[in-house]
Amino acid sequence: MSTNLETSVAYLKGVGPKRAELLQAELGISTYFDLIQHLPFRYEDRSVFYKISDITAESSALQFKGKITKKTLIGGGKQSRLVAVFNDGENELELVWFKGAKWIINSLPINIEVIIYGKPSRFGKKWNVPHPEVERADLYEKRRGGGLQPVYSSTEKLGARGLSSSGLARLIRGAWEEVKGGVDETLPSNLLTELRLPGRSDAFEQVHRPDNPLMADKALKRLKFEELLYLQLVLLRHKKATTVDLPGVRFEKVGDKFNEFFEKHLPFELTGAQKRVIKEIRGDVNTGRHMNRLLQGDVGSGKTIVALMTSLLAIDNGFQACIMAPTEILARQHAEGISDLLREMDVRVEIITGSTKKSDRKPILEGLADGRVDLIIGTHSLIEPTVVFKNLGFVVIDEQHRFGVAQRSKLWAKAKLAPHVLVMTATPIPRTLAMTAYGDLDISVLDELPPGRKDIVTAHRTDASRLSVFSFVEKQISEGRQVYFVYPLIEESATIDHKDLMDGYESISRRFPLPKYRIGIVHGRMKPADKNIEMSRFVSGESQILVATTVIEVGVNVPNATLMVIESAERFGLSQLHQLRGRVGRGGEQSYCILMTKDEFSKEARRRLETMCRTNDGFEIAEVDMEIRGPGDIMGTQQSGLPDLKMADIQRDKDLMITARYMAQRVLEVDAELEKAEHSTLKINLDRILKDRPNWSQIS
Ligand code: ADP
Ligand code: MG
After folding, report:
1. CA 313 and chain centroid, separation
2. What is the CA(249)–ligand 2 centre distance, in A?
3. Whose CA is nearest to atom 27 of ligand 1?
4. What is the mean pLDDT of each run of 10 residues along the chain (700 residues)?
5. CATH homologous superfamily for 256-446?
6. What is the third-level CATH fold of 457-615?
7. Cis peptide before 451 (omega within 30 of 0)
8. CB of residue 100 inside a 6 A radius of ligand 1
9. Which ligand is nearest to the CA of 299?
10. d(CA 196, CA 172)
11. For residue 586, which ligand has an atom nearest its CA?
12. In the CATH hierarchy, which top-level class contains the domain 44-151?
């Protein structure tokens, strides 16, 4: 059998069925191609040999040449430990293994020249090297190029089967030797010349066995760029197919309702950003193309009004509009706020949620079907098949990250022509992430807060300061303001969390007793009706304090609330903290956020708290969040919408992604269908990728 890129790794020397299974499970590697696409994440300079006498307290991993003179297995069972004596001709040190001792002892050659590599640590007065890499010097010399050694990511399970970085290196080299004759070029030569990148075959060669750091760098860049370029080609073509090429309903005129609202009922002047975004949207919706737009705007930036005014535009042109919110509370608040704004206008607004009674639901459904309802606001309930529109022209999806792609498309299916879609999110997404996860959407940004907002002052306090925190709460209330206390409620520890919430509620109630104070509470275990009562009491100012779990995270708008105390803040994620904090600072008053924690917490938690205290800028916070959690977690795992990148990394390769996006745009601008001769390589490979990577063709 002849080997090619698609051959299973099980056929590779040194793999076999067991290891093949493990490679698949741990790293998603199943073919030769997967294996050679497993790129090193760094290189170690192994050109220098040190002497044991060179070791200092500051030494990082070092390389020595010498002989192992003795090896001893100490202890038995799980506790066993392997100790070997290494001699570099002048001095001795000990090599120690705490794991895999029995397995390793057999592979350690005695009195034969070896190369060892590892980070020395001090043990009493002597140095030892825990878990060093050991290789026979003759084998080492045979394969070493310029002394630059690739380091591959591996896992504990693979390591236990001899496939840590160096084991993987051996496999990858073996695989590459077999297939290197059959690797085609996938980038047009003019692009390679322009970007000064090596050819594909050279790149694979250099990335796994570099001549020098510069070549390694270029090789890595080339391979990652190739992957990102094709990804961007897929996304941009998909974007074109769902916008420019897809006929959309046409909102030709700016009609009476839009104008009446703008002139008579808009309670404030639009910010420059709001005006710009409404203009961008109008540019989409009156052309006959289909709008598929992401609106990013930090909490409080005023996205709702943009959604409302666009809805009026739809209604003016004889269409219905729909706003879908992720939670009942938020849907209700949208419905109330919008109905209030439109109360003097002839626009019929209705709401449907999970708790809408059957008898109430019926006339609303009829109104949607016969066109009497102009604007419907709701939750997931809007997706149900019983909801039928006469003429749906515009769909708003608020807080998009909570909805899956499938749900979005179900709403679409309710119209004859694809309705325009505006996806709104208050979770700022780092630019490169937006470029991949939402790479097929047009993006608008509300980067300006309404005037008069002051930055929220944020401070971190531990339980020791609770009394003074309570005094501050008292002071805010005495000035007529309202206060949130937020408690974590995590599924896994729901019972304990619930108790904490209730204990907290009690101690706050003792400190702020009736009749002077009224305290509300909302949490997930309450009936929706009770939740709504408590919420509306707080909204109307009847209660001064609201004790809540994160159900208030999204959207809730009480401008008079100026203080938020977040309990066990160390347990919240960064973007969640930012979302929560956005519930205050929504009026003209100076607002505050106090992050309460225990005395001790993790390093990551410290970084989150520091970031919160330092900045109010959602985009800056999003960048830190992505550094801490990685892109996959930010998007949410099950419906992340992220493509499976094998070589490039959305976070580390930001600049390359931007270059790739630019290059893809440039190519498609002159040759949208990739029909020109100089783009034939791109076309062939794009078709192949779309066939092999269904995940890439479904991103949206
Ligand atoms: P978000 O973007 O977080 O959804 P909202 O749309 O809820 O923000 O707006 C937050 C608050 O700011 C609301 O009370 C809204 O009425 C108010 N608001 C929105 N735009 C403006 C503006 N241009 N000037 C003043 N207040 C505004
Ligand atoms: Mg909102």
Report:
1. 33
2. 26
3. 450
4. 86 92 94 95 85 88 93 82 93 89 83 92 88 86 71 89 88 94 92 94 94 91 96 88 82 92 96 96 89 87 95 96 88 92 96 92 96 95 90 87 55 76 82 74 87 90 95 97 92 81 94 95 87 89 93 74 96 89 88 95 94 91 84 56 79 88 93 93 91 66
5. P-loop containing nucleotide triphosphate hydrolases (3.40.50.300)
6. Rossmann fold (3.40.50)
7. no
8. no
9. 1
10. 26
11. 1
12. mainly beta
